Amino acid sequence: MRTDSSCIAPVSSLLEDARACGGLPAASSAGASLSENCTLVRFFAAVYARLRGAAAADAAAGRQRLHPAAVAHRYISPLRGRPMAIWELRCATPNGFAMLVPVDRDDLEEDVFDATGAPKHWPDRPRVAFHVEKRRKVQKPHANVGLLVPGALVLDGKARAALGEFLLRSGQLLELDCEGEPRWFYNVTRVIACVDAGRSATFGDGGIAREVFDESAVPPEPLVFKDPRTAPVRIYVNDAGKALIEREAGEAGLSGIECGEPGPL
What is the domain range of residue 228? Predict the structure, then answer.
């Protein structure tokens, strides 16, 4: 890991911007090592980018966030002229709820929470906690489905009971120790190559900036999945899966989960 000045120069401005949106914890202690600071910045920068991207997608679409009773806008496929059936499964209103943070820095160094589509095997339950904003008199509420890292979800017992059977068809629910109580890290392991790199908007290095999908690659049955090109930051769901999740989440009264159109990466 780099620890030179190019790594730490933007730290102050990044954390200041992130705290302004209510998405990041306080800066690490003055006694923390340079390596620790860089690791924390990398982690929080990824989460901040996820929060900012979700907000930008809403602003660009000029809409409110989806809920189980909403009728969603869909992209139209330029090849087939019909509604696309691929959505992003994500945390809803992430700035409205307390985010989760790792307790142990070793988990950051070892990429314990990376969500790339590969199965995980944890010998022990990683520890996480809800971030406490010291300047707030009243802390943000805890959602049933919380944000820890991009490309993953964290479920409480209520959410696991409502959605666990379906979600386990496409991944793992790995137990976490959240302040002494169990929560479950949803690691999606079903990977389907459905992002059309040739038609998608890309960055200069070839990375995907805005997806265009080949929906014919996705089976019609209810499904949660990732694409190898966007796996670290995205979870996708097809139309049938979206309908199932919204029905079960609505009936259970779950907070913190939604299926929406993917915004810019």
Answer: 64-260
